[in-house]
Amino acid sequence: MEALKGFKLCVISLLLFLSSTLTQSLSSTELAFDDSEYEDWESNHIPTSEMEEAEWKMVQRKGNQFVVNEQPFYVNGFNTYWLMVFGADESTRGKVTQVFKHASSVGMTVCRTWAFNDGQWRALQKSPSVYDEDVFKALDFVISEAKKYRIRLILSLVNNWESYGGKAQYVKWGNAAAGLNLTSDDEFFSHPTLRGYYKDHVKTVLNRVNTFTNVTYKEDPTIFAWELMNEPRCTSDSSGDKLQEWIKEMAFYVKSVDPKHLVEIGLEGFYGPSTPQRFQFNPNSYAQQVGTDFIRNHQVLGVDFASVHIYPDSWISQSIADTHIPFVKSWMEAHMEDAEKYLGMPVVFGEFGVSAKDPGYNSTYRDTLINTVYKTILNSTKKGGSGAGSLLWQLFPDGTDYMDDGYAIVLSKAPSASSMISLQSTRLALFNSLCSERCHWGCKKKKVLRKVLYHDEL
Ligand SMILES: *[C@@H]1O[C@H](CO)[C@@H](O)[C@H](O)[C@H]1NC(C)=O
Ligand SMILES: *[C@@H]1O[C@H](CO)[C@@H](O)[C@H](O)[C@H]1NC(C)=O
Ligand SMILES: *[C@@H]1O[C@H](CO)[C@@H](O)[C@H](O)[C@H]1NC(C)=O
Ligand SMILES: *[C@@H]1O[C@H](CO)[C@@H](O)[C@H](O)[C@H]1NC(C)=O
């Protein structure tokens, strides 16, 4: 009975979807980014009805899939780390809206961004537990704008690196404000005072009431997940024990404040001492010594899904080489296999990209990279595997070139990348709409899917 109902839903949504897909794929080939062209789109898509509001539910996890409203939720998304800082300034605020508009015009549904800026210019947290209300309002604005464009956010809570403050800033605070005498930035992970600072930050952010929507962050379905830290590494303890303890404590803490949202760590994905047989997949032999341990770290209670980054140009050689592409494929496949066999959770490739400043770079290489990532995910998706999606590093709106570190993709200037992004969105949206959990991967839709997915014009 339940199964039949599921199957009917499948068929109905297939029909609905095919018609909308056809229109979508036609319009995505035109790729114009004059903002006036978005007006129609906007009036059609900004949710006004109560029904659409009711559908805006929390993303959850069931086994190795994300689900929302009983449907799978595969992710095609992007990173734009500076949204809060841009939102804090009247003159740049419009860029926040613009990047969401552009991203949703190519079907992207998830954005990863920083919910931290510690002690720097336009700091959110000026000193431990002291917040700049204007910057907090800017974060409120980012979340409220994201919802308008049906984009969900992965919010990262602190940086491993010094940009936007990071663990180094927490150590400075410990020395200045608490009179400690800390010399290593990795004390961030182990010193009780700094652990306390971090927890206070978590508590403040998760309990924040959005001044635009009146929705408390921890109740807001616009937030896809909390990320404990951007790219944690703890090189002072290559056994991995120090970081492991921190992850255990903090994942538990986030869940205790907010049991509703998903949690991920923010790791790059290196294999560590618990799995020497997986070292062969690491990009270099240094990777196993940075205090992280992909499988062990992700087995911690409270961690819902795995995160992996993909940067051959930073890990193997800055100079672009054809060997980078097979690395990307095997790196991804190894992690999806782990997520299926040992973790039983979805894996999101939370950052991938290439810098246009790298020696040997050309846009063909970038397209090949994007295509490889997308195809490798689809290969897993088709089998109902753990490959749950990817987030491009990074999407910029027009007129922000001065912020570009080489990795930015401006859709209006990258027609072939835009087409690939649209295509991936369309394909993943098809999976999302066709397959209810109940109808799962075995039902008759499979044949239809195969037809649809292998038609390149789709
Ligand atoms: C701080 O620690 C360093 C070594 O860890 C030591 O040499 C120094 O004397 C300490 N300073 C204070 C003020 O305790
Ligand atoms: C938020 O709450 C305030 C005070 O109760 C109210 O005036 C305002 O209209 C509410 N805004 C929204 C978007 O619900
Ligand atoms: C682009 O770069 C790749 C990798 O370095 C190289 O193999 C390819 O020949 C280049 N293509 C063009 C058109 O320059
Ligand atoms: C898809 O996955 C299968 C088995 O996991 C593998 O043999 C195949 O090479 C993959 N295909 C692509 C295009 O990645």
Automatic annotation (TrEMBL):
GO terms for biological process: polysaccharide catabolic process. Its EC number is 3.2.1.78. It is an enzyme of class 3 (hydrolase). Residues 1-25 form the signal peptide. Keywords: Glycosidase, Hydrolase, Secreted, Signal. It catalyses: Random hydrolysis of (1->4)-beta-D-mannosidic linkages in mannans, galactomannans and glucomannans. It is found in: Secreted. PANTHER family: MANNAN ENDO-1,4-BETA-MANNOSIDASE 6 (PTHR31451:SF54), PTHR31451. This is mannan endo-1,4-beta-mannosidase. The lineage of its organism: Eukaryota, Viridiplantae, Streptophyta, Embryophyta, Tracheophyta.
